[in-house]
Amino acid sequence: MDLFSNLLTGFATSLQPANLLYCFVGVVVGTAIGVLPGLGPLATISMLLPLTYALDPVSALIMLSGIYYGAQYGGSTTAILVNLPGEASSVVTAIDGHKMAQAGRAGAALALAALASVFAGTVCTFFVAGFSPLLATVALSFGPAEYFALMIVGLVAAIILAHGSLLKAIGMVLVGLVLGSVGIDNNSGAYRFTFGSLELSTGIEFVSVAMGLFAFADIIAHVGEKTSSTPILHRISRLWPSKQDFREATPAAARGTLLGSVLGILPGGGAALASFSAYTLEKKVSKHPERFGNGAVEGVAGPEAANNAAAQTSFIPMLTLGIPSNGTMALMMGAMMIHNIAPGPQVITQQPVLFWGLITSMFVGNVMLVLLNLPLVGIWVKLISVPYRYLYPAILVFCVIGLYSIQNQTFEIMTAAVFGFVGYLFMRMKCEPAPLLLGFILGPMLESNLKRAMLLAKGDATTFVTRPLSAILLLIAVLLMLTVILPQFRKKREEVFTEEA
Questions:
Q1: Any residues with CB less than 8 A from the CB of 468 and at least 6 apart, and which?
Q2: Of the candidates 367, 297, 379, which has an alpha carbon nearest to the alpha carbon of residue 95?
Q3: Burial of 270 (0-12, 13-18, 19+ CB in 10 A)
């Protein structure tokens, strides 16, 4: 009954006119950036962060989350119709989805992708609603030592699951930790890495780092790219799939939902990892694997359900433990901190309207995506033909206005510009910036919990291994690092990321 009454509270919040409007804006913007290759949810959410200063926290988070799962949906539309995936998570959808479109079944492919996404979104709404309070109850027994150990696990998992070289991922996390320590030390009052700058004494602004690393760096990297003005659009005839399509797609969507739900919770996991894993799983369990790559229905339904499920369950560790599972969740966490809301188990008890309103808005947003997107397919495809040379200057102006509005000074703009250039260099060197952002977010909390744990233990460092839960978490972190050393695991990891690339 508690779950039922909590969901009613959530729907009463998410169905308010203002929240419906922001949910609508979120899913429309999300779909648009999902359609446009190169402009992902990370960059877009970082651009819109300054806007959330003026919004109610519930409305702001509903809009930002709508952008995230809306982008997963939008990416599949262009992947199917023009073989141009807007998002990394939609790359595998293009393999079989576009083959279906070439065979005159574009409508069925789009409908299957949409229905699989809605199915996964609906199941995961209840999964998040049911699982989060349980995890939050466990988290309430955590002390500073357990939180320190949990954050170590999160950072280690983020390193392992980051793309590319492990050494580069470790380096990015360390850079993030150093950047997070800039400013005045709360205990000693000492200035750290401020280099005499008064502006840096309060630390580096999170929005400047996020906007620079993702939005500005994306603009620098893609502004010179040419955009096809005449995408080959396959005609959409019959939208509703056949009975045979439903028979083949339903188990695939169920498996994709389950797999995506689990991978979404893991630190470092996300929609892209879930969709690739789901495609591999479908190919392995199929009695006719030779159909994959030639328009297999399961190759569309499974990955689409998985990426949507992962997008939604990635909210669980962020909301209940205060641990962002990927870069986008780190931005969502930053948006909560902008409104002085500390993510963690207390959010459910102290901010029930925000927590349940956000969860139920995901269900509302998924329904909006289906009702809006199928009839508007033609408009989304036309977006691809908008040249970047017109799109990016407008985005840049919007970003600069947002950065200036934070504290009415130009320092944040200059900081973002520096991080934009650094982010571009990271792209060229194939260093993923998401671990850096996780280190930047978790660094101050890691330090704070370390100090509190040592204070409570009167300086005895063995407190981290004598407390059972903390010891188990640290053991998990060590085992995770050891697995990377194993040649078999390292080879498999490289294979997975090569396939994604």
A1: none
A2: 297
A3: buried
